[in-house]
Amino acid sequence: MTPRSSRRTYDRAMNAQTTRPRPARFDTVVIGGGVVGASIAQHLSRRGVSVAVLDQASGVGGGCSYANAAIVAPHHVVPLATPALLREAPRQMVRRPPAVRVQADPSLVPWLGALSASASPRRSRVATERLQRLAVESTELHRELAAQGLNPTLRKTGAVDVYLRKPRREPSGFVPFVDLLRLEPTLATGAGGTHDGEEWTLESRSFVTAMLEDAARHGADVRYGTTVERLLMEHGRIVGVATPSRTIRADHVVLAAGLGAAPLAGRVGVSLPLRGGRGYVVDLAIDSGGPRLPVRIKDYRVVVTPLADRVRVAGAIEFGDESRPMDEQRAEALRRVAGSVLPALSDALVIDRWAGERPCTPDGVPVIGASKAVENLLVATGHGMWGMILAPVTGRLIADAVLGMPEPAPWLAPDRFAHGMRRALATR
Ligand SMILES: Cc1cc2nc3c(=O)[nH]c(=O)nc-3n(C[C@H](O)[C@H](O)[C@H](O)COP(=O)(O)OP(=O)(O)OC[C@H]3O[C@@H](n4cnc5c(N)ncnc54)[C@H](O)[C@@H]3O)c2cc1C
């Protein structure tokens, strides 16, 4: 189907939805229409399940999926909790600008304790292997979507990692700066770095739109401006959801509400230890002289990604009170770092600045699957730094579970968090 005719089909589907009285019962209600919820809805609707997607925002990208570094790099996926994070965090916190920041917030203490317990070499190695397996499968699914015309901004680009100072331990494939310059001639400085050819770029909101359009073409009912206030329980099962204006009944409910999943789950006895890992994005308009390839500036954990109509600068991870306002200076500091390495970015026009809360678990592994406490409530959140790459495989796993196929692995399950951690979080 051509993009234009697919657009017409989508418009017809959406118009039909708004003129018809909307049903109050579905096989599955998906709460949240970010990259994760949109992928789940796409998988379910294509497999014949009647789905409603409910999102409190007024349109695409109301949560963390508004923007991100736009990178799909399966072999770079690692959990948040690693020995390297613990080793480097003190240095990263004093570096200007800091790549990692933690506010003095007592409610973070148990969560940070669980994070450092997960950062042992063994646990982090096992988590890395598992996450990379998922990421490789998910990248294949991204590519299949692209081959069907359903992932319009996925591009295979490769990417460069540049180190401004020579790292103490050189990563494999490390080459001197002159070799990097051949790949990315707009780099102004560096001690060397690496190149990975197996990387893609993908714009987040276009991905969400494409998934929801495809879901709608297959019968899904996508409703923005619809806040789920609570989950409805009867005899130990979820029977639907309550919005301010109505109740919607369903056989299964999928909680894909990013950071918003924790309060909803908590009220039915499923504790999700989620905290927001704030990151920043600055989009620049640039006519010429910008980078050809995505560039990761390793010393500052800043990523520069050329997209079709802009160059994106993204980075930082901060933990604290998630309701605090955006710090504009942090965004500007990232742009200055990018400009010092790629001078064409220094005086480029800023067209967007944004900060978003990555939904993070303390072990850095997403939560995908059902809790034993409420079996027909499926959870899909906590994707942290890797939600966009892992979205399609999450959609596949949740659709399998809804259709009665084997549950996702126990290491993804909501019940994996220790009771002590859950109790500590319940006191927040
Ligand atoms: C700076 C930065 C760079 C990143 N770079 C990358 C990258 O390069 N590659 C990658 O794979 N990932 C990256 N990520 C991570 C990725 O963007 C996130 O993991 C992902 O967007 C999370 O998606 P989600 O669907 O789980 O959550 P969200 O996008 O937050 O979606 C949740 C949705 O639920 C809705 N919602 C919440 N509560 C309710 C409720 N009660 N009722 C109804 N609706 C509700 C919200 O409106 C929202 O739309 C990055 C993130 C950041 C911040």
Give an overview in words.
This protein has 428 residues and is of the alpha/beta class. The chain has two domains: 3-65 and 205-270 and 364-426, FAD/NAD(P)-binding domain, CATH 3.50.50; 83-118 and 159-196 and 275-360, D-Amino Acid Oxidase, Chain A, domain 2 (2-Layer Sandwich). Helices cover 33% and strands 26% of the residues. The protein has eleven helices and 20 strands. Strands 4, 6, 7, 8, 14, 15, 16, 17 and 18 form a nine-stranded mixed beta sheet that branches. The longest helix has 27 residues, at 121-147. It is globular and about 65 Å long. The structure holds flavin-adenine dinucleotide. Flavin-adenine dinucleotide (FAD) binds next to helix 2, strand 14, strand 18 and helix 10. Residues 31-37, 54-57, 62-65, 68-71, 227-228, 256-258, 260, 264, 279-281, 314, 356, 358-359, 381, 383-389 line the site of flavin-adenine dinucleotide (FAD).
Quick summary:
This protein has 428 residues and is α/β, with parallel strands linked by helices. It has helices spanning 3-19, 35-46, 83-94, 109-118, 121-147, 177-183, 204-217, 261-266, 328-341, 387-402, 419-426; strands at residues 25-31, 51-54, 71-72, 100-102, 155-156, 159-163, 175-176, 192-196, 200-201, 221-223, 230-234, 237-242, 247-255, 275-285, 295-297, 302-307, 310-319, 349-360, 367-371, 374-381.
